[in-house]
C-alpha cells in the first residue's frame, strides 16, 4: 500500500524517536481497521465486555495515548491520511455511543444489586432533577420544593393585593413618613411638585416595572455567577491556553543565524515561517485541567471544544 | 485591605506552601526512632539512609547551587537574555501572570491576600509557582485525576524540563519560565514534587514517620525550597545558606503536618490515613479507630504527641525568618503565625479532627498581622 511505504520513508528520514511512532500507527491502523469492520458488521460486538475493555485499554496504553499534551504529541495522528482520519473518527464516535449504552445497562444492574444487598444509595433520582435556584439565598429546587415555591408566590401576591386594595384604603393609611399625605411627602423630600400629581395607574405601572426589571437583573446576575463557578478557572471556560511557542500566532518564523563576517554582501533570504508544531497552527494548546471541556469538573458527556472555533 | 498568608490545602492533604524561613541552627528536631544522625556531625555511615538524610542532601545541593550562582552572576545575565529570547511578547506574559493571580485568588483566598503583602515582582513569581504546583497537584488529585496515568506524569515532567530551558508549552508554563529566568530557582524541588505525586498515586498508608517525612518533603518541603530564591536572603545575614534552606524545609514540613492533623476525618472518608502506622500502634490505635471517628483518651494522647512534633518543626522554621530579605519577612511571619494557630484550634476542639474543622477565625487572623509585622521588624534577633 502506498500509505505504508510512506510510513517507512518517514521513519527513515526522521530522528530515532519517530520509528516507534510509525510502527505504532501501522499497528493501530491494522487494529482499528479490523475492529471498525467488525463493528460495522456486528453492532453487538462491544458486548463481549471484558475483551473489548482490555482491547480498548491496550489500544489506548499500548498505542501510547496519553491525556496530557506535550510538544511532540499533537503530531500523534499527523501521519494518517484524510480518509483514515475520517474512518477513525467515525469508529470512535460509534464506540462512544455504544459504550454509553453499556454504562446505562450496567447502572441498571448496579441498582438491582444494591437493592438486593440492601445498600442504600444516597443519591436517589427524583422526578424532577435537583438544580440550584437562580435567585440568591434560596434553596435548590426540586419537585416538592416547587410546590412550596408556588404556594409562597401566590400567597404573597394575594396578600399584597389585599393589603393595597382593601386594607390600606379601609384603614385610611396615608403613604409617606409620619402619616403625611402623598403631596406632603413629595414636598418634604423637596422633589418637584408635579410628581404628586402623577396618575395612579402610571405610578403603579412604573413601580411594578422597576421592581420586575430589577428582580430579573438579580436573577440573571446570579445565573452568570453560577455558570462561572462551573467553568474551569485556568482557561476561563475556553478549554485552551495560549501556545507559548508561537505566541498565539500559529506559525513559527524560522530564523537562521547569518554570519556577517564572511559572505556579508549576500542578500538575506526572507524568513521562512512554518506551522507551529505545538498547537498545529491553532495558536492554543489543551488546558490539562479541564481537558478541553471548559468545565471545572469534566465528565464524559462534556463536548470537547474544537480549537478552530 | 489586610491580608494573611495561608497554605493552600487540597482535599487529600497536599499542601502548596509558598513561604520559607531561615533558621540559624541546623539541629535536627528530635525524632522517635533514633536511627538518625545529626547532619552537622558529618555523614556517619548508615546502612539505610533515612529520609531526613536524603532530604538534607537536596538542601545541601540547593545551597551549593546558590553559592555557585552568586559566583557566576555576570554569566547569569547573558544566560537570561538567551532564555527569554523566544518569548518577547510582554503583553501575553503580563496576561499570563494576571491569569496566575486570578487562579490563586480563586483557590486560595487568604494566601492571595497574603501575597499582596509582598513586592509586586515577588508576588507575580509566587503566583506563577503556585499555579504550577496547583496544576501538578490537580493532575493526581483533581476532578479528572482518574484519567491520569504514570505516563502522563512523565510527560508533565518533560514539559517542566522544557520550560526550565526556556521552551514553555502554554502560557501558564511561560509565566513560570519567566520566573525561573529572573530568580535563581532550581529544577530539583519541582521534579521532587512530581515524584511526590507519583508516590501519592500508589500509597495510601505510611508505616513510620520516615516515610511520612519523605512524603511531606515531596509535597510541601519542596515548595519551601522553591520559594527561598524568590523571597531572597538578606545581604547582611550571617547565617549559612544551608540553614536558610533548612528552615524553609522545616516550615514546609510543619505546614504539611498541620494540614494532615487538621484533615484526619476528611482524609479518612477518602480511605486515606496520613499518620504513621507504628506510632498509631504505639498508642494502641489502628486504622479502624480512625475510620470510626471517635475521640478517646488514647486518641487525645496520640494527637498531643503529634502536635508537639509539628510545633517543633515550626520552632525550627522560626529560627530563620530573620535571615530573609526584609521585604519578605512580614508575609512569611504572618503565614507562620497563622498556621501555628491551626494547631491551637485543634486543641480547642478537644482533638476532634474527625468531625470538626479546626478553624482560625477572621478576628484572630487579623490580629496576627500586626504581631507578624512586629516580628518582621526585629531582624536577626536572638530573643524570639
Automatic annotation (TrEMBL), chain A:
Stretches with biased composition (Low complexity): 42-55
Positions of the UniProt region annotated as Disordered: 37-57
Transmembrane segments: 148-168, 201-221
Superkingdom as given in the UniProt entry: Eukaryota
Keyword terms: Membrane, Transmembrane, Transmembrane helix
Name used for this protein in its record: Orange protein isoform 2
Biological source species: Hibiscus syriacus
Automatic annotation (TrEMBL), chain B:
One of the GO biological process terms: carotenoid biosynthetic process
GO CC entries: plastid
EC number: 2.5.1.32
UniProt entry tagged with the keyword Cell membrane: no
Keyword Cell membrane among record annotations: no
EC top class named in words: transferase
Catalytic activity: 2 (2E,6E,10E)-geranylgeranyl diphosphate = 15-cis-phytoene + 2 diphosphate
Alphabetized PROSITE patterns for the sequence: SQUALEN_PHYTOEN_SYN_1, SQUALEN_PHYTOEN_SYN_2
A Pfam family it matches: SQS_PSY
CDD domains: Trans_IPPS_HH
Descriptive protein name: 15-cis-phytoene synthase
Native source organism of the sequence: Hibiscus syriacus
Lineage: Eukaryota, Viridiplantae, Streptophyta, Embryophyta, Tracheophyta
